[in-house]
UniProtKB/TrEMBL annotation:
Pathway(s) per entry: Amino-acid biosynthesis; L-tyrosine biosynthesis; (4-hydroxyphenyl)pyruvate from prephenate (NAD(+) route): step 1/1
Enzyme class, spelled out: oxidoreductase
UniProt source species: Rhizobium sophoriradicis
Any single biological process term in GO: tyrosine biosynthetic process
Keywords, in A-Z order: Amino-acid biosynthesis, Aromatic amino acid biosynthesis, NAD, Oxidoreductase, Tyrosine biosynthesis
Species classification: Bacteria, Pseudomonadati, Pseudomonadota, Alphaproteobacteria, Hyphomicrobiales
Protein's recorded name: prephenate dehydrogenase
Statement: the UniProt record of this protein carries the keyword Oxidoreductase: yes
Family: Belongs to the prephenate/arogenate dehydrogenase family.
EC nos: 1.3.1.12
Domain Prephenate/arogenate dehydrogenase, residue spans: 6-295
Amino acid sequence: MSVLFDRIALIGIGLIGSSLAHDIRRLGLTKEIVVATRSADTLKRAEELGLGDRYTTSSAEAVKHADLIIVSVPVGASESVAKEIAGNLQPGAIVTDVGSTKASVIAQMQPHMPENVHFIPGHPLAGTEKSGPDAGFPGLFEGRWCIFTPVAETDETALKRLRGFWEALGSKVDEMDAEHHDKVLAIVSHLPHIIAYNIVGTADDLETVTESEVIKYSASGFRDFTRLAASDPTMWRDVCLHNRDAILEMLARFSEDLAYLQRAIRWGEGDKIFELFTRTRAIRRSIVQAGQDVDAPDFGRPHPLDKK
Ligand SMILES: NC(=O)c1ccc[n+]([C@@H]2O[C@H](COP(=O)([O-])OP(=O)(O)OC[C@H]3O[C@@H](n4cnc5c(N)ncnc54)[C@H](O)[C@@H]3O)[C@@H](O)[C@H]2O)c1
Ligand SMILES: O=C(O)C(=O)C[C@]1(C(=O)O)C=C[C@@H](O)C=C1
């Protein structure tokens, strides 16, 4: 693989930042990786893991002379990072991010971006419930989607260059507007996490009633929820606060549909229950079938964690 950028600055070195570092190094996509993170302890750990070539707790310092800057911090920290780096960005540099919400990240970062840099918001649809620099691993982005939500001024050449970067990591790149992204992700990613946090919380509240049986007999269905509910609280608090409208809209729909199911159960309406379960089963099957081609790599293949 060839060098695509001379110097890449990674701002934030948790699960996503460190996975990027592994792949950038493995594939030789740059001459120099600069790692920046707020906490000195995290930075020290990143250094022990050999994730970069240079390390600093100053994001402003890290972006000097970098031609690609990737911001991988909780979405609520986007504005403070943008303010910190704005004065030291070199003309022509590409600034991108990996945040799970897009309209809010654009609102937080774009006003601070100088006119002579290319700001391209992005979101790789790949991850796990783990966080921190130890959580990253090579190949996380392989076969996964990376969605760009370009802003009106986005330069086509810069877009093509960034697309080439994600494709080198094995990702498939798509583009959509930020509002659409936030709605789609609210239903396919944010709601499942919120539901998981909620059901595990409810089970925990019931623990006093059931005297530990929740943990003792937790079957695989419940365990699947506990994986999602073990995800990073800071990241997911920020997602909830920064995709508020779309999440509330999807939660309202979800609650209505749940009330329909609740009613069908109460009144013994087996045909309604059966019809719904048959419809959803068909959806899962069609996704699994699609998983055999490159359009749905999340399914029909082991989760990255299964390889470990
Ligand atoms: N975890 C996932 O599955 C996943 C998937 C796709 C996208 N994302 C998005 O990627 C971003 C990072 O998530 P992650 O899972 O790598 O989180 P993480 O908690 O593993 O890492 C976050 C990193 O950001 C650093 N940080 C926090 N505030 C900072 C600041 N002000 N300045 C500099 N560094 C700061 C932390 O020290 C840490 O190194 C989030 O916006 C998240 O929404 C996460
Ligand atoms: O696989 C997981 O554990 C994830 O939560 C990854 C996941 C998702 O919901 O699919 C989580 C948040 C992201 O922004 C993108 C991907």
